[in-house]
Amino acid sequence: MKKLLCVCACVCALGAVSLWAQDDSIVGQKYDNEAEIYYKNVMVDKIYTYRKGYVVQYRTKPGRISRAYIPNDWFRQKPPKAEMVTLKRAAGPSLMVFYKDGAFQSCRLYVLENRKDPTWGIVPFTQNLDSEFDNAADLKLEF
């Protein structure tokens, strides 16, 4: 019993010493090469395929809908600006947009694998959205 008590006391003492020895000066410190990277995630209502890319319809506020235009070229670039992740089952599709130092860096579109799902659609051939895709340099989400 005395040995067990002695071992427990040693373990506690070593733990306390290691906590005391930590350098608090590095907590919250910003380094020169550190970048501010963050992401925003939105739930997607519908994804429309178009000859030049995808039109992603998402909700901004209750009752408001906005669109994002993701060109096909973004998926083929090295490194890619866009990535599509197919899911067999999910709560619904979503769009995750990554920003670095406040500027658009890339996006990840989570979609359901089944293209017959109601979340998929096709832009009618009579609708011309070429200008939306030709001028797409970055992705700005509305909230």
Explain the overall architecture.
This protein is of the alpha/beta class and 143 residues long. The chain has a domain at 37-134: OB fold (Dihydrolipoamide Acetyltransferase, E2P). The chain contains three helices and seven strands, in the order H-E-E-E-H-E-E-E-E-H. The protein has helices spanning 2-21, 73-76, 130-134; strands at 37-50, 53-59, 65-71, 82-87, 94-100, 103-112, 120-122. A hairpin with a 5-residue loop joins strand 2 and strand 3 (65-71). It is globular and about 50 Å long. Residues 16-21 have low confidence and may be disordered.
Please specify the SSE layout and strand pairing.
Layout: H1 2-21, E1 37-50, E2 53-59, E3 65-71, H2 73-76, E4 82-87, E5 94-100, E6 103-112, E7 120-122, H3 130-134
Parallel strand pairs: 1-7, 4-6
Antiparallel strand pairs: 1-2, 1-5, 2-3, 5-6
Uncertain segments are 16-21
User: What's the rounded overall pLDDT mean?
Assistant: 82
General shape: globular
The counted number of beta strands is: 7
Distance separating the two termini: 63 Å
What's the short story on this structure?
By secondary structure, this protein is of the alpha/beta class. The chain is 20% helix and 38% strand.
Key structural traits:
single chain, 143 residues, alpha/beta, OB fold (Dihydrolipoamide Acetyltransferase, E2P), seven-stranded mixed beta sheet, 38% strand
